[in-house]
Amino acid sequence: MARTLYGKLWDTHVVAEADGKALLYIDRHLLHEVSTPQSFEALREDGLTVRRPETQLAVADHSVPTHDRDKPIDDRQAAAQVALLERNCAAFGIEYLPLAGNDQGIVHVIGPELGFTLPGITLVCGDSHTSTHGAFGALAFGIGASECGTVMATQTLWQARARTMRVTFTGRLAPGVSAKDMALAFIGEVGASGAVGHAVEYAGEAVAALSMEGRMTLCNMTIEAGARTGLVAPDETTFAYLRDRPRAPRGEQWDAAVAFWRTLASDADAAFDREIVIAADGIAPHVTFGTSPDQVVPLGTVLPADARFDRALHYMDLRPGDAMEGVPIDHAFIGSCTNGRLEDLRAAAAVIRGRHVADGVRALVVPGSMRVKAAAEAEGLDRLFVAAGFEWREPGCSLCVAMNDDRLPPGARCASTSNRNFEGRQGAGARTHLMSPAMVAAAALAGRIVDVRQVAR
Ligand SMILES: CC(C)[C@H](C(=O)O)[C@@H](O)C(=O)O
Ligand code: SF4
Question: What are the structural domains of the chain?
Answer without folding.
Answer: 5-159 (3.30.499.10), 163-230+259-281 (3.40.1060.10), 289-455 (3.30.499.10)
